[in-house]
Design goal:
alpha+beta; four-stranded mixed beta sheet
């Protein structure tokens, strides 16, 4: 690795998520706490795993990708997850409305949902998730270890912190 390359985080946490999933909404507090504790030393990467039982999840994943393109991935994800009942009721118009509320280009969201420009990213995430054994959300992968938060989130943040601390210590050693 040459010294002119941009600094990379010492640890990466892949967060397999579905924006219509109540368990993912419950996980927000843990994700906020992890961001507060580690800052940019831990990269949280949103990975999509929409499930068929939630009819708006695939569109929501595409909308999250559009939010990422507009530089607001996590604020958008948090806003949608915090109001999953509205997503259940209102579907795609709600996704565009959240974008508008956050000051994003809502027309571009609408267009992105129509033209499907982010479908391949969502499909690729879902395929990779299936390949590594993701069956529900949220599921976390850090340091090669998969942690399933869909069944219970009890103790998961502590486990993620243990692994992140180990990865950071190894990097600094």
């Amino acid at each position: 690795m040459n010294d002119s390359s941009p600094a990379r985080p010492a640890a990466v946490l892949d967060v397999w998520c579905e924006l219509q999933c109540p368990d993912c909404g419950s996980a927000l507090a843990d994700l906020r706490a992890l961001r507060a504790r580690y800052g940019d030393r831990l990269e949280l990467r949103l990975r999509h795993f929409p499930m068929e039982k939630h009819q708006h999840a695939f569109a929501a994943a595409q909308a999250a990708e559009e939010a990422a393109e507009q530089g607001q991935a996590w604020p958008y994800v948090e806003a949608v997850l915090g109001r999953a009942a509205e997503l259940d009721r209102e579907g795609e118009p709600f996704l565009v409305e959240v974008a508008r509320e956050l000051g994003l280009d809502a027309e571009e969201f609408d267009t992105a949902l129509i033209d499907g420009r982010h479908i391949l990213i969502v499909d690729a995430d879902q395929a990779e998730g299936k390949a590594i054994g993701v069956t529900g959300t949220p599921t976390y992968v850090i340091g090669g270890e998969r942690l399933d938060g869909g069944k219970s989130q009890e103790g998961l943040r502590e486990r993620i912190e243990e692994i992140a601390d180990r990865l950071l210590a190894e990097r600094e050693a």
